[in-house]
Design a protein that fits this description.
By secondary structure, the protein is an alpha/beta fold. It is built from twelve helices and ten strands. The strands form two sheets. An eight-stranded mixed sheet has the order 3-2-1-4-8-6-9-7, with helices on both faces. A two-stranded antiparallel ribbon has the order 5-10. Helix 6 packs across helix 8. The radius of gyration is 18 Å and the shape is globular. The termini are far apart. 47% of the residues are buried.
C-alpha cells in the first residue's frame, strides 16, 4: 500500500493548482490517496480565495481518491499540520506531507514510497525528505543528515511519535547538553533563535520543533542528492515573506537510486549545507528565518 499524500492548503489557488498538477504527473499518483486539509479564512477578505482553493480541490483528478478536509475556522499552519498529520497517522502507518507551494519532480512519489518502505523498521531514521539546497558541488545520490525537515517529507507513525510540541522543553535540553552550536550547523544558521522566537510567540513554527525533536533524539533523515521539490512560495505571495530565488533548486530529471546507502550522517553533505548558509550569511536574521522554515510559520500567521 502506498503512503497517503497530505496536502495543506489555504488561500492561494494558483500555487495549489501548480502543486496538484505536478503531483498528478508522478507515476504513482493514480495509485495514491490524496487528502487535502484546507484551512479556514481569517477574515472576509480571504474568504473568496479560500473558497477558490476548495473548489479547485473538489475538481482534482489523477489520484486514486481525493478527500477534502475543510476547516471551519482558521487553524494556522502549525496547528493544521500537527493535527492533520496526527489524525492521518492514527489510521495509516506512514504518510507523505506537502504544502500548497511545493512543486514536485515526477520522481518524487517513487522516491518517497520506496524510502518509506525500505526504512520502515529502522528506528535510526525518523523521516524522508524531498528537497535539498542548491549547493554548488555534486553530492551522493542520497544521504542522511541529523534531525528532520519540512519541504516535502514523509514519516511513519513511529517517527511522528517522537515529535515534541513543547519548544521550551526542547530549548532547555539543547542548552543543558550544550548542543546549540551543532544544532545551528556549526553556528552558520540561527535555528536556536527560531526556537526561542517560537517559545516567545513571535513565530508559530511547527517545523523548528520537528527538527529539534529529531535532533535531540539522534535521529536521521534521508535526503536526495538532487532535489525533488521546488518551493514556488518565494514570490512574496505569503504573509511576511519576501521575493527570493536563493533557495530555488532545479528539479531532478532522473530518479534517485537508494541502493547501497550507509545509514550514518553524511559529512560532505553536512559541510555543503553549512557552506551554503555561510555563503548567504548576509541574509542572516529575520530574512533568513522567513526563507527557510519561515514560509511555514509566517505566511499563515494573523
Amino acid at each position: 500500500m502506498l503512503a497517503p499524500i497530505l496536502l495543506f492548503a489555504f488561500s492561494r489557488p494558483d500555487h495549489t493548482r501548480r502543486a496538484l498538477a505536478a503531483l498528478a504527473a508522478n507515476e504513482l499518483a493514480d495509485q495514491s490517496d490524496l487528502i487535502v486539509y484546507a484551512d479556514g479564512a481569517r477574515n472576509e477578505r480571504e474568504a473568496a480565495s479560500v473558497r477558490a482553493v476548495r473548489e479547485l480541490v473538489r475538481g482534482t483528478t489523477g489520484f486514486r481518491s481525493v478527500a477534502l478536509i475543510e476547516r471551519d475556522m482558521n487553524f494556522g499552519l502549525a496547528r493544521n499540520i500537527i493535527e492533520g498529520v496526527s489524525e492521518v497517522l492514527c489510521q495509516h502507518e506512514r504518510v507523505i506531507v506537502l504544502e500548497d507551494d511545493l512543486v514536485t519532480s515526477p520522481f518524487f512519489l517513487t522516491y518517497m514510497n520506496e524510502a518509506l518502505e525500505r526504512y520502515a523498521n529502522d528506528d535510526r531514521i525518523i523521516s524522508i525528505h524531498g528537497y535539498f539546497f542548491p549547493v554548488e558541488v555534486a553530492l551522493p545520490e542520497a544521504f542522511f543528515l541529523p534531525g528532520a525537515d519540512c519541504w516535502g517529507w514523509g514519516t511513519w507513525r513511529r517517527g511522528w511519535a517522537c515529535f515534541n510540541p513543547d519548544g521550551a522543553q526542547l530549548l532547555l535540553e539543547l542548552k543543558q547538553r550544550k548542543l546549540e552550536h551543532a544544532f545551528n550547523y556549526g553556528g552558520s544558521f540561527p535555528y536556536t533563535q527560531m526556537l526561542e522566537e517560537q517559545i516567545a510567540g513571535t513565530n508559530d513554527s511547527w517545523a523548528i520543533r520537528w527538527y529539534a525533536s529529531a535532533f535531540l533524539l539522534g535521529k536521521l533523515t534521508l535526503y536526495p542528492g538532487r532535489s525533488l521539490v521546488h518551493n514556488i512560495g518565494n514570490d512574496a505571495s505569503g504573509t511576511n515573506s519576501d521575493k527570493s530565488s536563493m533557495m530555488d533548486s532545479v528539479l531532478s530529471e532522473r530518479p534517485i537510486r537508494l541502493e547501497g546507502l550507509i545509514v550514518e550522517a553524511c559529512g560532505p553533505a553536512s559541510r555543503e549545507v553549512e557552506r551554503f548558509f555561510r555563503k548567504h550569511r548576509r541574509w542572516r536574521g529575520t530574512y533568513w528565518l522567513k526563507h527557510l522554515f519561515g514560509f511555514f510559520y509566517s505566511r499563515w500567521t494573523a
